[in-house]
Amino acid sequence: MRILLSNASPDPIYEQILRQVRAQILSGDLKEGQALPSIRKLAQNLQISVITTKRAYDELEREGLIDTVAGKGTFVASPNLDFLQEKRIAAVEARLREAVREAEAAGLSAEDLKQMLDLLLEPDHA
Amino acid sequence: MPEPLLRLRGLTKRYRAFTLQEASLDLPPGSLMGLLGPNGAGKTTLLKAILGLVRLDAGTLTFQGRDLAQHGAELRRRIAFVPDTPAFQPGARLATLKEAHAPFYPGFDETRWKGLMADFGLDPRRKAQELSLGQRTRFALTLALAQDWDLLVLDEPTTGLDPVFRRELLQRFSEALDERRAILFSTHITSDLEDRADFVTFVRDGQVVLSDTQEAIKGRWGVVKGGLDLLDEPVRRAFKGLRETPHGFEALTDNLPGTRAHFGEQALVERPSLEDLLVLLGRKAHA
């Protein structure tokens, strides 16, 4: 599990951990059943508070990405494909929303934007 | 949250020129708490109160659910302490000093002590007077860390230590923690605690002005920077600390989301570092 924390980032530390672990689970770099370091061990390794690592793990657990088995440890959960798909759709939607905002700021019309998207969707444009 | 390992309520100590005023805090087991404050804020008095080294005018101290005033002699064997300027009998060898210290602490681990001495580059045959301040602190650390402690209290342990050793020491602290132990240490080197300390307690002018998890503090508090035109009376009153220059102001808020919403793009609202908090907390505007 690879985690790089930035002091320069405006994002809270727990969110940086959350995002990086989530990305590695969704991409398959972290596989189902794989053990994650304990909350205390991770805090030690990253030299941060256990409360921060706990918050990140709690959130990952709520998202169904990891499971904690009392007395055994924390593991990557079996993938919930619907959930993953939903996550991906949400991510695409968020990026599109960002693009729309940017387009509005640049004074592009809805038509301009659609044309741009069509162009990007052309098969030889990858 | 588990029952606190250490609980302070209304600790008050009056000196002629200084008063520690109704200091309260909770330290849960499993956590590292940093005690931050400018020189003379009352950090040492507070720590000494925990150690039973000052006679309190008011307040209660509870350790592992029991009253420290009544069971101090027994309970304090579970507390290890490193003072800010450790003083040892000058002519004595380090091994002799250890012999004098260990019997007071059941569970003192000789093997671990020897290991720590080697790790910290100290020779047991040396005499206390031959040591530099940094080496004296290291020696005091070997005695404390070899104890079988539940609470480790350190008064500015990193002052006088080089950055390399400081890092190692902090790593040792987090490795030593488990679910029943806690560490409380005072410092004015905020980088020792930044993101690492589970709890942070700010002391200023003899008062505990803020004590919470670092997560909660950084989620709620913010540094606001903006032009002087934004400062009206209600805004000034809402800030918890304010510094003005001819070019703008820098202030503290304990309502990060609300402040972001209020100023929008007009002001810069950032997550605070512990240093921001230490410097700005309680700092009032010069009108």
Descriptive terms for the model:
heterodimer; A: 126 residues; mainly alpha; Arc Repressor Mutant, subunit A; 2 domains; 3-stranded antiparallel β-sheet; 8% strand; B: alpha/beta; Rossmann fold; Alpha-Beta Plaits; 6-stranded mixed β-sheet; 4-stranded antiparallel β-sheet; 14 strands; elongated
Q: Round the Cα radius of gyration of chain B to an integer and report it.
A: 21 Å
Characterize the overall form of chain A. elongated
Number of helices of chain A: 5
Range of helix content of chain A = 55-70%
> What CATH architecture of the largest domain in chain B do you see?
3-Layer(aba) Sandwich
Descriptive overview:
The complex is a heterodimer of chains A (126) and B (287). Chain A has helices spanning 13-27, 39-46, 50-62, 81-105, 110-121; strands spanning 35-36, 66-69, 73-76. Chain A has 126 residues and is mostly helical. Chain A folds into 2 domains: 13-76, Winged helix-like DNA-binding domain superfamily/Winged helix DNA-binding domain (Arc Repressor Mutant, subunit A), CATH 1.10.10; 81-121. A 3-stranded antiparallel sheet of chain A has the order 1-3-2. In chain A, α1 crosses α3 and α2 (39-46) packs across α3 (50-62). The mean pLDDT of chain A is 89. Helix content of chain B is 31%, strand content 27%. Chain B has 10 helices and 14 strands. In chain B, the strands form 3 sheets. A 6-stranded mixed sheet of chain B has the order 6-7-8-3-9-10, with helices on both faces. A 4-stranded antiparallel sheet of chain B has the order 2-1-4-5. In chain B, β7 (151-155), α6 and β8 (182-187) form a beta-alpha-beta unit. The longest helix of chain B is centred in the middle third of the chain and has 14 residues, at 163-176. The model of chain B has no long low-confidence stretch (mean pLDDT 92).
